[in-house]
Amino acid sequence: MDLHIGGRHAIVCGASKGLGRACAEALAAEGVHLVINARGRDALEQVAAQISMRHSVTVTAVAADITTAEGREAVLSAGRAPDILVNNAGGPPPGDFRDWSDDDWHQALQNNMVAPIQMIKAVVDGMIERRFGRIVNITSGAVKAPIPALGLSNGARTGLTGFVAGLARQVAEHNVTINNLLPGPFETDRLNNTLAGEAKMLGITPEEAANRRRQTNPGKRFGNPTEFGQACAFLCGSNAGYIVGQNILLDGGAYPGTL
């Protein structure tokens, strides 16, 4: 399927590995030029070189902390005004809410709610003027089915979801869409860290925690990041303009509800 976005320009955050990298790869395969961001310079530049070589697109690596104003400015000034924005930042660590300080909560909100909103603010008016924009926020399946050990993430990402629900309806008439992708358990470092936290709480090994989690999923497996990247690219396509303000679960059927 041709998504008709060849030659467009995108910013993909958290793109040195995991789901962010998968999104960058999928967009590049469609001919989209990229500015990719993460904090680790060496890994990010290696990914940029690999993607550029495979897909013959321009890939600019910007090593910066996207949760800071300085980091966002570095990313936004590195290329042309983007047609596509993929917001992605690592979630806060698991734990018990009794142990979290005000600073822990402020950091979680800054990283997973305020920073994505500031990125949207920086690019959305330009998208409106050009009458094309696709914004995808990578949040979490925990927005619909909260995970007790991830209370910081549950709270911050749900706040972003509520904000997007209103804004998406305001900009849709300009062919600018904002949607959220909610990953369940995918084979990423983030999942490994979460499983380690669960294992500690339950007094079992991470391997045992992983096996338990697999068995609770209807697919009896974890997701492959490539699957996630393809879904992201589809939402960024020219023909996806009627998908507005949605929270799309990619969790192998783990969420049991109908809504």
TrEMBL record:
Pfam families reported in the protein's UniProt record: adh_short (PF00106)
SUPFAM superfamilies, per database record: NAD(P)-binding Rossmann-fold domains
Top-level taxon of the source organism: Bacteria
InterPro entries: NAD(P)-bd_dom_sf, SDR, SDR_fam
Similarity section: Belongs to the short-chain dehydrogenases/reductases (SDR) family.
Classification via PANTHER family: 3-OXOACYL-(ACYL-CARRIER-PROTEIN) REDUCTASE (PTHR42879), NADPH-DEPENDENT REDUCTASE BACG (PTHR42879:SF6)
Protein name (Swiss-Prot/TrEMBL): Dehydrogenase
Native source species: Marinobacterium nitratireducens
